[in-house]
Amino acid sequence: MKTKLTELLGIQYPILQGAMAWTSEHKLVAAVAEAGCAGAIASGGRDAAWLRNEIQGVRKLTDKPFGVNLMLMAKNIDELLEVILEEKPTFVTLGAGNPVPFIEPLHAAGIKVIPLIPNAKLAKRVAEKGADAIVIEGQDAGGHIGKLGTMALAENVIPEVDIPVVLAGGIVDGRGLAAALVMGAEGIQMGSRFIMTEECQMHENCKEVIKNASDTDSVVTGLTSGHGGVRGIKNDFTDRYLALEFSCGDKDELTKMSIGTNKLAAVDGDVVNGLVQAGQGLNRLTQVTTVKEAVDSIIKEAKEALKRGSSFC
Fold first, then answer.
1. pLDDT tens for residues 6-45?
2. Segments of 28-98 assigned E as strands
3. What is the spatial distance between Cα 183 and Cα 151, in angstroms, rounded to a whole number?
């Protein structure tokens, strides 16, 4: 399945694995690469030594392309960037800040640059500044979200830029890949779907929560913070947070409540007081498979959907 994205990254299928903090480590990334897609290590919350070990860990398991996600709000961003420039993964995805200053140094090291973009204005700007591709992620996604839904974001952005666009947000199967390609995207990014794999190191308690969730079970916390909301699955923590948030609670107290909740769930397995971050495509996430089985299923479904679509022409 060839697209401009597969040609850009040297991969077999136009699928990126979303970089999920405390979750996207070398075992998952290598398995995604071996399955013909592009995995990405999540560096958020990590130190430079950990990142270097993870990059080298991927290379011990595969010789195929992979990337790193750099969260631009990280306090140790200079140290993380130095590791990336030295280790030279195939690509870097950039989010939570202004990606433009990072394009030139990454290109100088021979690294492809793929910013995560929440709106058309920024999409056009990074395209003009030399980004190799962009990921547009709708608020259907898990974790930190923007203001636009996935469909609206695709409608607004894809016609406006001439670099490959990767669509993300609530996409969990091959029908989503087919829809993205028909709309003019060159591929998709999936996070929650890869959580539900054997190679993913997220705590099994989180996988069980996702497996048992339905389409209306995700909620968004932090919409009043000014930094965008965070989508996860409804639990005791979200009930307490939202009750305080929408009763005009103290913002410092809200910040204190939210710190570390992702790690608490993903690493420690506390799915009562932690936040299980996942997108809205929950009804399809009902079983854990290997990465290869997941990718094979997605590609088969996409081809079937594209074939059905051609019958309307």
1. 999 999 999 999 999 999 999 999 999 999 999 999 998 8
2. 40-42, 67-71, 91-95
3. 9
